[in-house]
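Researcher: Here's a chain I'd like modeled. Treat it as a single chain, no partners, no ligands.
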Amino acid sequence: MAVRIEKSAFHVPSLEELGEVLHDGLKTNFADVQVSVVDCPDLTQEPFSFAAAGLCGKPRIADVGGVPYLLPLPQTEKIYNLNTVAKEVELPAAFILGAGAASFKAVGVNAELMPNVLTKGGGKPEANHSYSAKINPVTGECILEKYGEKYKTCDFALLANLYISEGKPGKVVEVRSSRRTGQSNFVSCMREALERHYGDKPIGMGGTFVIQKGKAKIHVMGFDLRVEHTHCFSHHGEGGHYHYDTTPDTVEYLGYFLPAELLYRIDRPEKTHNIGRD
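Model: Modeled as a single isolated chain. Structure tokens:
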């Protein structure tokens, strides 16, 4: 069944301008901030181990489904596929990062999904490096799994917020922040800075970051934040939805970001609500 797709353009500032805006915003919330325009590191290497080398090449954002498909009751027929999404955003063989809900048909329970996929195209199959996180019903502990490797699917359920590009090397904005002094988390602080500076101009930004020191609060569920949505995974068996760091005095962030050119709203719910936005 065909889904409704709405397409719109973002305002795209220069990377230099974007860097200045992010720097000024982060300085209100972190003691130490460095922002610069650099060549994107090879993201196929540690600590990222992504499915593509870079964040560049026709960057766009897809907002798929939504919280109303999850709450008050999950609509189990809402299953999507990342290969299909790549076609719907007019970028086959795309590199997709983001946050969403894992397919309960694959996992068997509600689980967080950390998409990390180079979708199929050009005669090549997809490379699926995605992770998922669920709760052990007996112990209550997080179970982090290599979703693509274990379940061998690019399906996801209910909702996802995705950054999509050609996965090419290129220039990006590098952000280093440490010692949080304010109340906003790393992602919220950048979003709020963009909102203050650009006002009514629509801005979309995606990318990735590493918490080099410190700990963070995460949850395992699958909510939709609309204006921001960040999932994470670790190399020590934990993952889920990022809220904020819990060690403000010692935390260190390193991130790489790029402004998106286009927004694709896919299968937007006809009826919405404000449940589960945080």
